[in-house]
Structures are given as C-alpha cells and as structure tokens.
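[agent] plan:
  1. take the single chain provided in the ticket
  2. run structure prediction with default settings
  3. attach structure tokens to the ticket
  4. add a short note for the reviewer (M.T.)
[agent] executing step 1
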Amino acid sequence: MRHAPVVALIALLALTLAAVACDDDDAGTNAAATNTPQVNERTSALPPTEPPAGGETPATAEEEVTGIVGAVVAGTSTIEINQLSGADVTQVAVTSATQIRRATGGSLTLAQIRPSDRIIARGAVEGAVLTASAITIQDVLPGAQPGG
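[agent] step 2 finished; step 3 output follows
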C-alpha cells in the first residue's frame, strides 16, 4: 500500500489533463462562455463596427516613412523625398498641425529643412503623399553630401 498515494496522484493528474482537453474542444462551440465573436459557416467576417458618435469617421492608422529630403516646396508646403523605408510615398505634406523637430532636440520650420537632410515622417498616407502629423529631421553631416 506504499504506492497508493503515487497512484492517486497520477490518477488526479490524468483527470486534470482530460478535463483541460475537453475544455479546449468545447471552446469553439460555446461562444457565450468565451465572450469572443465566432465565425461560422454563414458568416465570413466579424460583424461591422458602429461608427463613432457624432458621425465622425474612424481615425486612420498612422504610417511612417524614412528618407532623404530631395526638395522643399514652400509654396505647396510639401517635401519631396527619396524614400528609404516605410510607407511607399514620394512627398510629405506639411500642415499647420504638423510638429517638426530636430533629432538632436528643438523645433524647426519648413524653411529650415534642407535637401540631403534625413527625414522621418509619421502621418496618414493617401496615394504617394503622406500628410504628416510629426516630422523628425536629422541635419546632413559635413562630408556626407555627394561630392562633399
């Protein structure tokens, strides 16, 4: 009878594992218990979400682009860039709400951005234009320009 506690422990462990396995099998059939939307044969997608109160459209997810400034067009408040990574855009639109700052700290204006500066811009993408909510500029280093 010395082995009775060990046998009882093994039996308890086996029952516990069997109960866990049964719970996993029931997870897909009891949607109310898991409180998660289930997709069945009749629906191919989750139910549509309601628009925010007041008829506002949902906020667009921001994307990020890094690149090198090609030209600054003050008349249209845009920055033409050579994209290095991120969103597939060639222009960054600057609005009155866009925050422009230096990588080393401090703020900048659109007129202070120069060709060959490195740029990281975040905002909403529409076509080949990113409307920036935030821009970070890293000044070009002496000798880093072609022919410099």
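[agent] step 4 note for reviewer: The first strand starts at residue 63 and ends at 73.
[agent] ticket updated
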